[in-house]
Structure formats: structure tokens, C-alpha cells
Amino acid sequence: MEIWDKSGPENLESGPHYLVHYKGWKQTWDEWLDDSRILKFTEENLVKQKYLKQAAISSNKKKSPTSTPTTLLTPGISNKKNQGSTSSVAPRLKSVADGDLDFHRGRKRGRESAVEKGEGEASKKIEFKFTVPNVLKVKLIDDWEFVTKEKLLVELPRSPTVSQIIDQYNVYLLENAEKRKSRKNEEISKEILVGLKNYFDKALGAILLYRFERYQYQEILQLYPDTKMSDIYGAEHLLRLFVQLPALVTQANMDEDSLLVLKDYLGDFLKYLQKNLPNFFVEKYNTPSPSYVSVAKAI
Fold first, then answer.
1. Superfamily designation of domain 134-298
2. Each residue's pLDDT tens digit, 195-232
3. 182 in helix, strand or coil?
4. pTM, whole model, 2 decimals?
């Protein structure tokens, strides 16, 4: 832990600040925090620490001893990038669009499967990772505090919904393709964005909800039995999915070229979320009724 002084970041308010490194997390997650963001050593805060550690592990797996310092680790595979045309990548992204994954076996499933299949086949696993912007990392932490500590909820249905945000991003890509000289083509965009919606719909009830939200989820299922969750929930829960995506995508057994394309899109999508932060994320969470709190604690 380092103490901030005048030589530190200029955008910090005056007063004591600490450069905090989260144990087990990469340096990209380091933050300058003031006293209000430093938590006491309590049982409740240990639970929070456990969540944050799991989130970091999901998105930033440790490098293998034989891997090279590239953004995507590719043990056992040549590091030649962009082999073949980008149009040939789209069919290989079908596994993403199908979203045919087992979310109920937990985040370790991909690594366990690799071990079960033998050392030779496991060596072909390509590690998938991308960087979440710092502003969105803070959103994740605040979201955790609002729901688990302050017992607040996001009002549902949200506006815009996950589907609407993804559709708006697709329009954004098409409108800015020529201006940005982007190589993203329409076919690949459709494959990835459809897959992102499918991932969200399947992952929400299995791994994206905190315990306090589960009763709200049950209520939503009763009120909207024929509606996809991507048409109910919004950016707050979509952002949680990105913490889990590296482990989920690993299950899809995609090749290196497809993963590079997917990483490019997801990284750009996160920048789009950051750019539209005030429009996509709620400013205030709602206080549920006493009856809700009573039932939610019993689940």
C-alpha cells in the first residue's frame, strides 16, 4: 500500500489516499482510494473480498509458464494472428451465438474439463481475457455494495434493457464503420451480439444474481413468463456477465482467430458502455418493502 502525495494522480481530491492492490488481482485493478473506500476487517467485508477475488480470477487467469506475454495466451498454438480472411471467422463463432453452455457447474468447469480430457488436449486451450475499464470496475463494486450491503434493488423492468443496449451498439457500429475505418463486418457483428444476448439469458438466473435479488427474479418470472431476461434486465446485470465471460467462453472451445475477433468486439462494447454510462446505468437503486426483505432473507 502506498500513500498518495502531491506527485500522485492530479484528479484526486485533497486528503489521505492509498494506492490499494487487491491480493490475487492484477495491477490493472489497483486504485487510489480515500478513507471512505477503505473497509474494516469484518466478516461482512470478508464476504465482499471473496466475491471480488472470484471476479478477478474469472477475468484474469494466471499465465501459464510456457505462455508468451501477449494479451491472449495461446499455449501450444502458433501466435500468427489473423490467418485467413475475417469472413471465415463468422462460422466459427456459432458456438457463441448458440450459447450452449452449462452454467450450473460453476466457473471451474472449463479448467476441470481440460484436465479430464488429458494433458495433450488441455494444452490446446486458449486463455481468453480482456480489460474492463476502471470506471466500470467501480460500477461493479458499487453495485455489489448497493445490493448485498445496503439491501437495495434495481427497479425492473429496466430501460434501456440488455437487448436494447446491444441493439443500439449494433447501430453504433454500422453508423461509425466508415468514419472509424472499422474492419468489423455485419455478419460477424450479428453472430457475436446474438451470442451475447443468449449468454445473458442463460447466465442470469444461474450465476449473475446476488442472493437478495433472487426473490425479485422469481417475481419477474411470474409476471413475464414468456419474456427473455435480456428484455427485462439492464446494464447493471449485463456488466456482471463480463466478469464471467472469460470462463464461459473457454467452454466454447473456439480457435485463436475467433477469440481474437471476439475479444476485439467485447473490448469495444465495454468502451461503448463506459461512453454511455449516464444513459445506461441507474443513478439510484430502490428500497424494497419490508415484506420483500423478509422473504428475500429466507431464500
1. MRG domain (1.10.274.30)
2. 899 999 999 999 999 999 999 999 999 999 999 999 99
3. coil
4. 0.64
